[in-house]
């Protein structure tokens, strides 16, 4: 590396974030790799984080601004002496966080809260909205990009697709069943892809943004699109399911309204599966849930399904490239927060290409 400083998007305090010059990361532990970020994204949780909606992250800063971002592809430029599976020059994707497989949280299947750091750009480790990133425990954190696949093919695997996998698996879909996906932003679109293309379900996509519904319909991953601002959602779901309601609903919006829709739209004995992080408490209609015998499943994704989904990307069954609606260099990332963060201009996913000098 011939450069000592780099550009990086850092989070200081609620509402305070910006593109700074910072030192290029160096190897600290022998299990680290350093990689040049070749493609990254903005995630909805980044937007929530920089506006202070994830208080645990803000508290963990303790006056040290943190580089944001946890969804990326990169090229390895240096490896520590204990890194066995990766070498300089290799193209990689990464899990959204560091996973040690040894701490209690990892053993309980909750790598997001791994004692060695968890998600990039949150509690311990700087993130990927930068020119370079340090990847701790590189052997366990990195995923080789297979021969024949490009970065854009796998970019959404570790975060968006793995989150959708968690939600779709929890929905226990069988072929031919009907699932309502509430909120078809990036994760919701990925849930539509998995439900329709991999698990053989019939998908009803629900959102307030017409362009997102159109995207799902055009990609052939939803059969029906319902707009909450203009459609009688409960009525149309009932009409599409012989009056029963959806076999399962997958919520990605995490609001009182979206959960009300989920409880109302799911049939008796059905499953409500939410992958939302819920920035606010919501009230839950217990009597409705009891009388309908609903099962509610939720939680944080566990990075399951990555190998299976990589194979399905290779065969073309999973194709997320239509979600990459916007791309611009790191120079313009503040505009990305504006456009993606406010759902402007039909933006589903804002892709960050390397800084242009
Ligand atoms: Zn994310
Ligand atoms: Zn761990």
Q: How would you sum up this structure, described in words?
A:
This protein is α/β, with parallel strands linked by helices and 357 residues long. The chain has two domains: 5-155 and 324-353, Quinone Oxidoreductase, Chain A, domain 1 (Alpha-Beta Complex); 160-297, NAD(P)-binding Rossmann-like Domain (Rossmann fold, 3-Layer(aba) Sandwich), CATH 3.40.50. It is built from 13 helices and 18 strands. The chain has helices at residues 44-50, 55-61, 104-107, 138-141, 151-154, 157-170, 186-198, 210-218, 233-240, 256-265, 286-291, 306-315, 333-341, and strands at 5-13, 16-23, 33-41, 66-67, 72-79, 91-94, 97-98, 118-119, 132-135, 142-144, 178-182, 202-207, 224-227, 246-251, 266-274, 295-297, 326-329, 350-353. Strands 3, 5, 6, 9, 10, 17 and 18 form a seven-stranded mixed beta sheet that branches. Strands 13-12-11-14-15-16 form a six-stranded parallel beta sheet, with helices on both faces. Strand 11 (178-182), helix 7 and strand 12 (202-207) form a beta-alpha-beta unit. Helix 6 (157-170) crosses helix 7. The longest helix is centred in the middle third of the chain and has 14 residues, at 157-170. The protein starts with a strand and ends with a strand. 48% of the residues are buried. Residues 99-100, 102-103, 105-106, 114-116 line the site of one zinc ion.
């Amino acid at each position: 590396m011939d450069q000592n400083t780099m550009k990086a998007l850092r989070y200081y305090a609620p509402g305070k974030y910006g593109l700074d010059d910072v030192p290029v990361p160096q190897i600290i532990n022998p299990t680290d790799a350093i990689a040049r970020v070749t493609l990254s994204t903005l995630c909805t949780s980044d937007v929530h984080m920089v506006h202070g909606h994830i208080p645990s992250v803000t508290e963990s800063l303790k006056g040290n601004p943190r580089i944001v971002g946890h969804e990326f592809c990169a090229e390895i430029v240096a490896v520590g002496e204990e890194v066995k599976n990766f070498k300089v020059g290799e193209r990689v994707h990464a899990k959204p966080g560091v996973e040690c497989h040894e701490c209690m949280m990892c053993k309980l299947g909750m790598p997001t809260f791994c004692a060695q750091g968890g998600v990039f750009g949150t509690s311990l480790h700087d993130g990927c909205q930068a020119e370079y990133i340090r990847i701790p425990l590189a052997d366990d954190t990195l995923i080789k990009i297979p021969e024949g696949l490009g970065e854009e093919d796998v970019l959404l695997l570790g975060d968006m697709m793995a989150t959708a996998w968690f939600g779709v698996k929890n929905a226990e879909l069988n072929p031919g069943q009907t699932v309502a996906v509430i909120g078809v932003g990036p994760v919701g679109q990925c849930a539509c892809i998995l439900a329709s293309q991999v698990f053989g379900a019939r998908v009803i996509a629900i959102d307030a943004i017409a362009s997102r519904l159109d995207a799902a319909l055009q990609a052939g991953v939803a059969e029906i699109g319902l707009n909450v601002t203009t459609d009688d959602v409960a009525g149309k779901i009932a009409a599409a399911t012989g009056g029963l309601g959806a076999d399962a609903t997958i919520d990605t919006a995490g609001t009182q309204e979206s959960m009300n829709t989920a409880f109302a739209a799911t049939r008796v004995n059905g499953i409500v599966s939410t992958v939302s992080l819920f920035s606010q408490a919501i009230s839950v209609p217990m009597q409705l849930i009891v009388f309908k015998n609903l099962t509610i499943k939720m939680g944080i994704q566990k990075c399951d399904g990555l190998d299976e989904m990589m194979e399905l990307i290779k065969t073309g069954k999973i194709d997320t490239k239509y979600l990459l609606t916007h791309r611009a260099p790191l120079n313009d990332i503040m505009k990305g927060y504006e456009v993606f963060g406010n759902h402007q201009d039909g933006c589903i996913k804002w892709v960050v290409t390397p800084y242009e000098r």
